[in-house]
Specification:
Blueprint lengths: L3 H10 L11 E7 L4 H14 L3 E7 L5 H7 L4 E4 L5 H11 L4 E15 L7 E2 H8 L29 E5 L4 H9 L10 E4 L2 H9 L4 E6 L7 E3 L2 E2 L10 H5 L6 E8 L9 H10 L2 H9 L7 H12 L1
Parallel strand pairs: 1-2, 5-10, 6-7, 6-8
Antiparallel strand pairs: 3-11, 4-8, 4-9, 4-11
Amino acid sequence: MLTATASQLLAAEVPDYKRQPGVAGKITSVGSDTMANLMTFWSQEFKQLYPQVKFQIQASGSSTAPPALVEGTATLGPMSRELKPSEIRDFVKKHGYPPLVLRVAMDAIAIFVERQNPLPGMTLQEVDATFSTTRYCGGGEPVTQWQQLGIADPDYPSPIRLFGRNSVSGTYGLFKIMALCEGDFRNAVNEQPGSASVVLSVASSKGAMGYAAYGYKTAGVRALPLGETRDTLIPLTMDTVRDESYPFSRFLYLVINKKPGEPLPTLEREFLRFVLSKQGQQQVRRDGYFPVREDVLLRQRRLLDN
């Protein structure tokens, strides 16, 4: 872990973004719904610096980013999960080298309940037993009633109404790995087209629970602490996400086509430098996500410059 002095030193080394001459053109972004607002914030701020730049942002899910990059119909591929080996193989087959993957923000997959819900938290086995049919994470009985989680109020709505993302979503795929130990979802999980829809559904139903990107949290929901046991629950905070102690912490990525040994075109290079600058990371905070640690951010800038 970084000492306070080392952290302050790294923070001081993260550069401000400085406007460069000759930046114009169009950036097309195809990918993550989770990162839709973040891409909008970045693009709006960047356009204030460079009015001649245009953006087209299509937020149709992380799984749509790799094919768009392979076919050359996207400049950038925002993704809320890592690339699959098959996606990397497809890219290499077309271009002869792998894509460049940059970690540009941090997020967490939250388990949301309605804000008045008294549940103090859940164990990881309880999460699996609630959302999956397979219970590969070691859970026993399937959890379908609030009483099974310790809510004794007999009037509390049961069974638990479940909400989650659809299958093209990176959040869906990552939750399947992290929370279900690569198991199968229950048919009872109501799939939604975006994290905002999940949060709205949970907020408007006393007996609902759903998983979604934490950046879409509203005042109507509460993110549950999670842990191996009820005695070791970890709350979802900036510190627990950035040090990755919260169980469902994750990076958010921008994937690009960069030929090894060759510089990126000016527009793409400057936009990514902006994203990886102090100003770019301020937009991450603005959208409710978490800036990457300073040491990680500096490594991403070196990847970009190399």
